[in-house]
Amino acid sequence: MPSLFLLEVKNYMALVPGKLFQLGTMIMFFIVILVSLWRSKTNLPKVKIMPPLEAFKEAVGRAAELNRPVIFTPGWGGGNTQSIDADLLAGSVLLTEVVNQTARAGSDLHVLVGNPNTIPILEGAVKTGYIMAGHLDEYSPDIVQFSTPELYSYSAWVAGEMRRLNCGANFMLGQHWMESLIFAEAGLEIGAFQVASSAMASQVPYFLATCDYVFIGPEIYAASAVVSQDKTQLGSLLGQDVLTIIILVLSIVGVVLATAGVTWLTNLMKV
Amino acid sequence: MSVILRKTIPSIVIGVLAVWMIVEYFTTVKFFTDIGTIFRNFAVIIAAFAVALGGLSSLRFHTQTIIKRKAGSWEFSAVLVAAIVVMTVTGLMGWLDNPIFSYLWNQVTVPSQQTIYSLLMFYVAAAAYRAMRASNLQAAIFMFTAIVIMLMNGPFTQALIPGITDLGNWILTVPQTGASRAYLIACNIGIVALFIRVILGRETGIIGASKEG
């Protein structure tokens, strides 16, 4: 196998055409994030706690006062049962915090799943949350419930469960597609305190119109770092900001050059 | 379970697989692409098992609900369990060629799904009504643009209001596209940062392990 590998490297080692700029950009991303991680050992950036994250306690506390359960949905996730998207990963990290708060408040929790691939991750997050709260004895594998990977059936089931259970708090953190409005309207009708997230621009307006607090766009990815309070994770947020500035500058330069009729930057991106 | 089994090994596996798939994306080396294909096939097989395990888990949960006669929900669980059993058995006996499966699929599942999708129209209307409150300047701008887009798509409004189509198209192609791209870029930077943390084993929440756990 090693000799075969070396032969292949010698004969065919080449980049896929048209991906040179992508590779360069990705290497730059890695370097910036790694430098920010290294810097975080000495200079930890100050991170503002996002209002939706602060609302977790309020949502769970309100549900506990009303003696109503808490529902968490990671969303259908685009129906791709062969992969797990970044939104679902970030949502599962935040689930740990929701479980932590719920266990401390003594409320019932239901995690309603539509993508079977996420079940082990969500079960792990739920268990971790109970360990963090010191209530591992209350953990049950039945907290994470799966119904179907069919979008419409999943939507009907979750909306029905919300009404049947009369949930007091509804967390929609993950990747919600068309089901976002069905869940959010069901929660609104029963007066649940709702916290949602969406990295999909098409779903954000629905959540903003129906939920109490919303993680907009990339906030969901940063929220997991804020929840953990891990130095390395917080340091990567600085890298994100640096990358945003680099891309902003690149965009402005690109606009100016393109307006002036200079196309080398556009051509470089096509390489 | 030791920390090595629960946290270290899964982190290493995730990191190696992620790096492998990145290399495979950028290179034409057959060694990487062949093994990358094997990894993807593994993903398909694991996903199939995940669906089966999810179905069994659901069956177990709802069977227990029926046995315990849980008030307000055991009736629904009974319908669900009956549906799972009937659809599985008839599906294995010919899928859509089986008349029972075909009838249940076409006469029950498809209309039910269309009904759920149709509900969206009412929900979108209700959400739009709530959103259209000019409580501050930003909300007023939002409401104005929404009205312009609605008028642009109306059946007679294009003829009644001259220039509404041009204004609507400008909103869609200039400010809307610009804002959407900025949003998309910001999200993708967040995703890259998240996955670098995953590759480095710092985002252990995804394997159900935390500093405490």
In short:
The complex is a heterodimer of chains A (271) and B (213). Chain A has helices spanning 2-12, 20-39, 51-65, 86-105, 119-133, 151-165, 179-189, 204-210, 219-228, 231-259, 264-270; strands at residues 70-73, 109-113, 144-146, 169-172, 193-198, 213-216. Chain A is an alpha/beta fold.
Which helices and strands occur, and which strands form pairs?
The complex is a heterodimer of chains A (271) and B (213).
Chain A: H1 2-12, H2 20-39, H3 51-65, E1 70-73, H4 86-105, E2 109-113, H5 119-133, E3 144-146, H6 151-165, E4 169-172, H7 179-189, E5 193-198, H8 204-210, E6 213-216, H9 219-228, H10 231-259, H11 264-270
Parallel strand pairs in A: 1-2, 1-4, 2-3, 4-5, 5-6
Chain B: H1 3-26, H2 30-67, H3 74-92, H4 99-131, H5 137-153, H6 157-160, H7 164-199
Helix pairs in contact in B: 1-2, 2-3, 5-7
Structure commentary:
The complex is a heterodimer of chains A (271) and B (213). Chain A is of the alpha/beta class. Chain A has two domains: 18-46 and 231-270, no CATH class; 51-227, Rossmann fold (3-Layer(aba) Sandwich), CATH 3.40.50. Chain A has helices spanning 2-12, 20-39, 51-65, 86-105, 119-133, 151-165, 179-189, 204-210, 219-228, 231-259, 264-270, and strands spanning 70-73, 109-113, 144-146, 169-172, 193-198, 213-216. Chain A has a six-stranded parallel beta sheet with strand order 3-2-1-4-5-6, sandwiched between helices. The model of chain A has no long low-confidence stretch (mean pLDDT 87). Chain B has 213 residues and is an all-alpha fold. Helix content of chain B is 80%, strand content 0%. Chain B contains seven helices and no strands. In chain B, helix 1 (3-26) crosses helix 2, helix 2 (30-67) packs across helix 3 and helix 5 (137-153) packs across helix 7. Chains A and B meet through helix 1, helix 2, helix 4, helix 5 and helix 6 of A and helix 1, helix 2, helix 4 and helix 7 of B.
